[in-house]
Design brief:
This protein is mainly beta. The protein is built from 2 helices and 10 strands. It has a single domain, classed as Beta Barrel (Lipocalin), CATH 2.40.128. It is 10% helix and 51% strand. It is globular.
């Protein structure tokens, strides 16, 4: 039987903030700018999907411009479980193919209208050589 939190997270969540915190310096860095956009969906079937991106993205016809667009978004989907402390996202499709077939573990706190998700300390490609904790703040959406 699913944990109670698995039922409580069902539905749509809108991204309010996305940032990392350096484990060395404590510095906060916005991942998708000051006004990130995104949605996180949890379905009763146990599937989740997430789409996050920077605001102000513009179409590009150049290879460099398309690479920049790729770096300003994240998207993935898979089955999820919640146990009152952590999510396990079993990713089966992702913007970054290295995530496919992996379990992404995220820790969370949940209120009726807010969901805070954080990673363990990780190596992030935008901050080479530095361990960071990623934070995503969500509000209940309709």
């Amino acid at each position: 039987m699913p944990h109670l939190d698995q039922q409580k997270v069902l539905g749509a969540w809108k991204l309010a903030a996305a940032y990392t915190v350096s484990q060395t310096t404590g510095k906060h860095r916005a991942l998708y700018g000051d006004a990130p956009r995104g949605y996180l969906m949890f379905q009763p079937s146990g599937r989740m999907f997430a789409l996050l991106m920077s605001s102000g993205r513009q179409p590009s016809q150049t290879k460099a411009g398309r690479a920049t667009l790729f770096q300003s978004l994240m998207s993935y989907s898979g089955k999820f479980t919640a146990d009152g402390e952590k999510f396990i996202f079993s990713v089966d499709i992702a913007w970054d193919p290295t995530w496919e077939g992996t379990d992404q573990i995220r820790y969370y706190t949940l209120t009726p209208s807010n969901l805070s998700i954080r990673t363990s300390p990780i190596d992030h490609p935008l901050f080479p050589g530095e361990k960071v904790i990623g934070h995503l703040e969500w509000t209940r959406s309709q």
